[in-house]
Structures are given as structure tokens and as C-alpha cells.
Amino acid sequence: MAAPATTQCCAPIAREPLGEADAAELATLLKAVADPVRLRLLSMIGSHAGGEACVCDLTGVFDLTAPTISHHLKVLRTAGLIDGERRGTWVYYRIIPEVVNKLGALFAPLATPAKAQNGPVDVELLTV
Asked: Could you tell me which of 39, 46, 48, 67 has the fewest CB atoms within 10 Å of its CB?
């Protein structure tokens, strides 16, 4: 049996307790993407050619009414995850990378170990 691999912990959420303001901001973002339709919309907008998608490209994918899709887009926009620009009769949406990256950074592993009072935490990963 091979020796267990050891890796340093932790994601930014585990390196130190979140402050009240940071927790409130992140909770708003997490709440906005906690709905499957909104998460799909965010993904569709972010992965669309050119980095933006017309609302006309988004509505046909779902078995939902246009007002319902508009509501979900408004929630994402109010949270600051997307922005939109009207061009003629259509609105084109794009993600706001620095805000979306806050969500990814929350759970991404740290490049350097966290400073803990009792030293770094080692996690053993065992393969069977």
C-alpha cells in the first residue's frame, strides 16, 4: 500500500472567520445562484460566444414564460453577477467577472497554507 498523500488545507472560507459584511455580501451572491434556473442562466451567459447573450437566446431554452426569465435575470442583475445593455428591442447580458470570481474564490484551495493558531492543518488523502 502506498504512503498517504498529504496536502495543506484550506479554502479561503476556512482560513479565517468571515466578517459580517463579507458574509452578507457572499450570502446575497450565493442566494442568487441557489436557484437552478438562475445558475443555468449565469452559465449560459458566461459561456456564450463573445461573453454576452441576448435575452432572445435565453428564453427559448426554458419551459418558462418570458416574465419568469426576466425575473430570474433581474435577481442575477440585482446581486451584481450580470449586467445588461439594451440594443434595440433586445437586452444583451454579460457576467461581471470580478463578482462571479468571488464565488469561485470562496471555495478554491489556497495557493499558500492558511495561518492557524495551532499551525497548518494536514489532511491525509487515502486511496484504496
From this structure: 67
- Are 76 and 35 in contact by the 8 Å Cβ rule? The answer is no
Rounded to a whole number, what is the distance in angstroms from the first to the last CA of the chain? 8
What's the pTM value of the predicted model, to 2 decimals?
0.73
Sign of CA dihedral 8, 100, 76, 21: positive
Amino acid at 62: F
Please state the φ and ψ torsions of residue 5, each to the nearest 5 degrees. -80, 140
The C-alpha cell that represents 63 in the structure block: 419551459
Amino acid 67 reads P
79: closest CA among 26, 32, 24, 21? 32
Distance of CA 74 to the CA centre of its chain: 16
